[in-house]
Each structure stands twice: as structure tokens, then as C-alpha cells.
Automatic annotation (TrEMBL):
It comes from Pseudonocardia halophobica. This is SnoaL-like domain-containing protein. SUPFAM superfamilies: NTF2-like. Residues 11-104 form the SnoaL-like domain. InterPro entries: NTF2-like_dom_sf, SnoaL-like. Gene3D superfamilies: 3.10.450.50. The lineage of its organism: Bacteria, Bacillati, Actinomycetota, Actinomycetes, Pseudonocardiales.
Length: 114
């Protein structure tokens, strides 16, 4: 059975908090796009590098969901993050889910040093 968009997001946050890049990638379509200020990444190889880099730069990071709003497979996620070296209080992503996989995502956040 295909996961709902909110189930995909829940699995995605669990994989992020487990620091498991392989599990993170199972939530994305092979040609998924991740857009951040100044960058547009596409495909599993680019996403592997991006999430691996994030986990490396934010040791022991823990993401916390602040709010989730979903309509027709489009999710607005507000989130926070705590890590050994920085915090984020203003994370906001848009996630588009089709057929149980993330096909597009935008992400914006401001890390603050600890």
C-alpha cells in the first residue's frame, strides 16, 4: 500500500534523526528535486551528498516538527533543529509527495552557532 504524504514525512524525519542517508533516500523519487536558497539539486546522488553533508556539519542533529499542513500531496513543514554545533529555530520546507515518494522539496533555514 502506498504511504500517505504525512506517513512519508514521518518516515523522513525518523531517517533524518537516525542520521541514515540510505533510509532518507528511500523517501525520494529517483529524479526528485531539492531546492534551497542558491541551489537546485536533482537525483539520489545529489541528495546523498546534500544530506550526508548536513549530517556531517550538524553532528548529533535532532529535527523537531513544529507544524505540518498538508493538502493534495503538498506539505508545509515548520521545523527546528538542535545539534552539537548549531541550532535552527526557523526551518521551513515545502514537500511534494506523489505515489508515496517525495518528488520535490524546498528548504530554508538559518543555522545559529551554539
Amino acid at each position: 500500500m502506498t504511504r500517505t504524504p504525512v506517513e512519508v514525512l514521518t518516515d523522513h524525519l525518523k531517517a533524518l534523526n537516525a542520521h541514515d542517508v540510505d533510509a532518507i533516500l528511500t523517501d525520494y523519487a529517483p529524479d526528485a528535486v531539492l531546492i534551497t536558497p542558491g541551489a537546485a539539486l536533482q537525483g539520489h546522488d545529489a541528495l546523498r551528498q546534500a544530506f550526508g553533508g548536513l549530517i556531517e556539519q550538524m553532528p548529533n542533529c535532532v529535527f523537531t516538527e513544529k507544524s505540518v499542513t498538508e493538502a493534495d500531496g503538498v506539505i508545509l513543514l515548520e521545523w527546528a533543529l538542535e545539534s552539537d554545533v548549531a541550532t535552527v529555530s526557523d526551518g521551513i520546507d515545502t514537500v511534494v509527495v506523489r505515489d508515496g515518494l517525495i518528488v520535490a522539496q524546498t528548504a530554508r533555514f538559518t543555522p545559529q552557532p551554539r
